[in-house]
Amino acid sequence: MALFRRSTEARTPLDDVDLVLADLDGVVYKGPDAIPHAVESLNAAAETVRVGYITNNASRTDATVAQHLTELGLHVQPTDVVTSPQAAVRLLAQHVSAGASILVIGGDGLVDEVQKAGFSVTRSADDDPAAVIQGFSPDIGWAQLAEASFALQGRSDTERPWIATNTDWTIPVARGIAPGNGTLVSAVHTAVGRLPIVAGKPERAIFDEAVARFGARKPLFIGDRLDTDVLGANRAGIESVLVLTGIDGGKQLLSADADARPTYILSDLRGLSEPYPETRVAKSGAVSVRDATVAIEGNDVRIVSEGSDRTDLLRAACAAIWNSGRAIYGLEVPESLYA
After folding, report:
1. Which residue is catalytic, options 23, 62, 224, 248?
2. What is the pTM of this model?
3. CB 59 within 8 Å of CB 111
4. Is the bond preceding residue 202 a cis peptide, omega within 30 degrees?
5. Which residue of the set 15, 16, 18, 25 is catalytic?
6. Do 135 and 162 belong to one domain?
7. Is 259 considered catalytic here?
8. Closest CA to 224 of 260, 259, 255
9. Residues 116-174: pLDDT tens digits?
10. What DSSP element (H or E) covers 42?
11. Among 173, 198, 202, 244, which is least packed by CB within 10 angstroms?
């Protein structure tokens, strides 16, 4: 997969794309509020290409998400929203019989999808559920996690299926970064000594659901995390944008594994419709993006020219390090590249 556009032709990340899939937390909003430039940029993109929304957050229904996005100024219907509970329930149906009783550890978004699929919902392990499905809710506490643990230990003949909507370690909210569903899943994992089947990013299930729903041939996914968004898109064969408005920034990009590197790096979503700068590699191996240049000399990553745009400098540094094939821990990287 090409790391960056190298054509001299002025092309934007939206060129030839027939579907834009945008993550929500850290891309469109933080907490209840829109991220600067996100709404107008996505509305502009929607004038020429289909736009859908994909989220690992399992605490809300697709209708509630669509309402929130509409209130922010986006033009969204519930069918435009693909959630990890939707993908999780499809996985659930492959492991239990129709109409089975399911222990739900999560919020309204997860309960709604389980019920829409024809399953019955219980909140107690004492009801002998056929499976456990777990998703994020800010109201989950010890009692709910304990019910999951009891259910997953409580059958001697065979293991109950355990489906997790996602395993994001953190979630961005208005006040900062908070524990995500992965933290809650880890608590149950520690108690029962086994791992769940995961539906959300970075697994393929949620991406495959989105591409099939919209009938896309060349989708573009926008996320703010390398370990879930970009890794998942790469696994699904989808080009990706890492936008620097959420969880991951320069430090994570510079050290990204080969399977978690985005096609594009954008400071904000205005870059979707702007020409993406060419990456130029000199015979010496120095990499330039517009007027920013970075070289690797011995074990030192050296800024040859800071240039006029911090994102161009980061793009050049990423390309130089990634092209070198060397592990980040073997290089001396200036703090100014990721501070």
Report:
1. 23
2. 0.86
3. no
4. yes
5. 25
6. yes
7. no
8. 260
9. 999 999 999 999 999 999 999 999 999 999 999 999 996 555 789 999 999 988 887 77
10. helix 38-45
11. 173
